[in-house]
Amino acid sequence: GLRLAQVPHQERFAEARGLPYLERRSPSGPIRGSILVVDDAPDVLLVLEEEIRRRFPELEINSTVNPVEVGFLIARYDPDIVFLDISMPVVGGVEICASVRKILDENPIHVASITAYSADDALAKKFINAGGEKIFSKPPNWHEIEAYMKLCIDS
Prior knowledge:
Strand content: 15-25%
Structural class: alpha/beta
Strand order of the largest sheet: 4-3-5-6-7
Number of strands: 7
Number of helices: 6
Radius of gyration: 15 Å
Order of helices and strands: HEEEHEHEHEHEH
Distance between the termini: 5 Å
Shape: globular
Oligomer: single chain
């Protein structure tokens, strides 16, 4: 299943970097896990956050439109699932996924893509070869995403 928040670890991480520590809670109570959503389109990001929050209110959701922030956000929030857009400026989802897998090989993290390029077989193959688990199309099929998230939560 998803790991419970490791408060002492996170407090030490934040303190060592001079960051404020914020207790992880959701409107429905204790956090059961954390999701990171990355998309360079703010309107798309907002929809993704709202749909995930509606289906999984017990999960902490963090997001960014800046793919350069992903490493910091993974270190800060220790997400259980990362959703990436594949095509973003500066650094794309394939490169981010490969970096995450290289750095966090001992810390299992689920990485999937929600992208308009899901029909691009070459790009999809690159993402899967980089360590991505699943590619969802835009506009998203929320039944598929919800099923994937439940599998991740129950694993």
